[in-house]
C-alpha cells in the first residue's frame, strides 16, 4: 500500500512534492510483484473407501503429472479385480459363464503377497485413488464393484457394465501371482474374437500403448520380465476383454510374489503414484 500525508499549515518543498508525486504514480500503475502473491491453500484430506487411516488420500499425492489434462465429458470404467468376499462363496465364483470363445469361472479369489496382502485389497485401493483423480479432471467414472467385501461380479458382467455405460475406455486393475523370480508390469490387450470385437481391437491397442507408456514413465516400474513383449501381452482367454464392446485393457501392476514388486504394491505412496500414472494414461488416450 502507498500512503501520502500532508500536514496542514506547512508548505512542502518542490523536492518533497516531486518525490510524493512519483510514489503516487507508482501506486496507480497496476503492476504486480511476486512478493504480494498469496501462497496456495493446503488441500484438505478426505477419507475414501479402501484407504486406511493415515495413508495418502486418493488424488492427494504429489502435484505432478496427475494435475495435467481434462477429461470433461468422458466416461471411464474402472474395474478393480476380484472382490473381498469371493473366497467365502465358491458356489458363486466357480460357476461358468460364456465368454464367446469358451466358458470361464465367474470370478476368482486373486493372488496375494507372501505376507498376505491380497490382490483384491490392492486393486480396490488403487481403483479408488484413480477414480478420485479422474473425477477431478471431469470424467464420469463407473466402478464395477462398490466395496471390497462383496462377491463378484462375474467377469462377463464386469465387461457388460462398460458396454452399458458406453464407456470411452475401460481399465481392469490387477496384480499378478507369477513365480517370484519374475518382476515388472504388463498391459493385456484383447485378441480378436471373430464376429464380436473386431471394432475395438485398434482402439484397445492404442489405449494399451498409452497406458503402458504412462505407467512406466510415472512409476519407474520396468516392463514384465516373464510375460509379454515390451510390456504388452495379447490374450483371448479373459472374459473381461472378450465380452467388451468398448476399448478395454487389463494392467498387471506387478508380480505380488516378487519381493521388490510386492514392496511397491504394499506402499501407499507407490499406490498413489500408480494411480496418478494411470490417470495420465487416460489423458493421453482421451485427450
Tell me about this structure.
The structure is a single chain. This protein has helices at 14-27, 90-93, 119-136, 155-164, 198-219, 239-242, 259-266, 268-286, and strands at residues 75-80, 96-98, 103-105, 140-143, 169-176, 186-190, 232-235, 248-255. Strand 2 (96-98) and strand 3 form a beta hairpin. The protein has a six-stranded mixed beta sheet with strand order 4-1-5-8-6-7, with helices on both faces. A two-stranded antiparallel sheet has the order 2-3. Helix content is 34%, strand content 14%. The protein has 287 residues and is of the alpha/beta class.
Summarize the model shown.
The protein has eight helices and eight strands, in the order H-E-H-E-E-H-E-H-E-E-H-E-H-E-H-H. With 287 residues, the chain is of the alpha/beta class.
Topology of this structure?
Layout lengths: L13 H14 L47 E6 L9 H4 L2 E3 L4 E3 L13 H18 L3 E4 L11 H10 L4 E8 L9 E5 L7 H22 L12 E4 L3 H4 L5 E8 L3 H8 L1 H19 L1
Parallel strand pairs: 1-4, 1-5, 5-8, 6-7
Antiparallel strand pairs: 2-3, 6-8
Helix pairs in contact: 3-8, 5-8
Reported for the largest beta sheet, the result is: 6 strands, mixed
**Strand portion:** 5-15%
Q: List low-confidence stretches.
A: 1-67
- In order across it, which strands form the biggest sheet? 4-1-5-8-6-7
SS content category: alpha/beta
Q: What integer is the average pLDDT? A: 83
SSE order in H/E notation?
HEHEEHEHEEHEHEHH
How far apart are the first and last residues' alpha carbons, in Å?
Answer: 44 Å
* Rounded radius of gyration (Å): 26 Å
> DSSP helix count?
8
Number of strands: 8
What's the oligomerization state?
Answer: single chain
What sort of overall outline do the alpha carbons produce when their principal axes are compared?
A: globular
Summarize the amount of helix as a percent range: 25-40%
Amino acid at each position: 500500500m502507498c500512503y501520502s500525508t500532508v500536514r496542514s499549515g506547512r508548505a512542502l518543498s518542490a523536492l518533497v512534492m516531486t518525490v510524493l508525486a512519483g510514489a503516487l504514480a507508482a501506486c496507480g500503475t497496476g503492476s504486480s510483484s511476486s512478493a504480494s502473491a498469496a501462497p496456495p491453500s493446503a488441500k484438505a484430506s478426505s477419507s475414501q473407501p479402501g484407504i486406511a487411516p493415515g495413508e495418502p488420500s486418493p488424488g492427494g499425492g504429489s502435484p505432478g503429472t496427475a494435475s495435467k489434462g481434462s477429461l470433461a465429458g468422458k466416461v471411464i470404467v474402472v474395474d478393480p479385480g476380484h472382490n473381498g468376499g469371493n473366497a467365502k462363496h465358491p458356489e458363486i465364483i466357480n460357476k461358468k459363464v460364456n465368454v464367446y470363445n469358451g466358458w470361464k469361472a465367474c470370478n476368482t479369489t486373486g493372488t496375494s503377497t507372501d505376507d498376505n496382502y491380497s490382490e483384491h485389497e490392492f486393486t480396490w485401493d488403487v481403483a479408488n485413488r484413480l477414480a478420485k483423480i479422474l473425477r477431478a479432471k471431469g470424467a464420469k467414472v463407473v466402478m464395477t464393484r462398490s466395496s471390497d467385501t462383496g462377491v463378484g461380479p462375474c467377469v462377463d458382467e464386469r465387461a457388460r457394465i462398460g458396454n452399458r455405460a458406453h464407456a470411452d475406455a475401460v481399465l481392469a486393475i490387477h496384480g499378478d501371482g507369477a513365480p517370484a523370480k519374475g518382476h515388472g508390469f504388463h498391459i493385456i490387450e484383447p485378441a480378436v474374437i471373430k464376429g464380436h470385437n473386431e471394432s475395438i481391437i485398434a482402439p484397445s491397442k492404442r489405449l494399451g500403448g498409452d497406458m503402458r507408456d504412462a505407467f512406466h514413465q510415472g512409476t519407474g516400474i520396468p516392463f514384465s520380465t516373464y510375460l509379454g513383449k515390451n510390456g504388452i501381452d495379447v490374450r483371448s482367454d479373459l472374459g473381461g476383454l472378450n465380452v467388451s464392446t468398448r476399448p478395454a485393457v487389463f494392467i498387471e501392476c506387478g508380480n505380488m510374489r516378487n519381493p521388490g514388486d510386492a514392496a511397491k504394491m504394499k506402499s501407499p505412496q507407490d499406490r498413489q503414484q500408480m494411480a496418478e500414472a494411470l490417470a495420465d494414461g487416460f489423458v493421453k488416450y482421451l485427450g
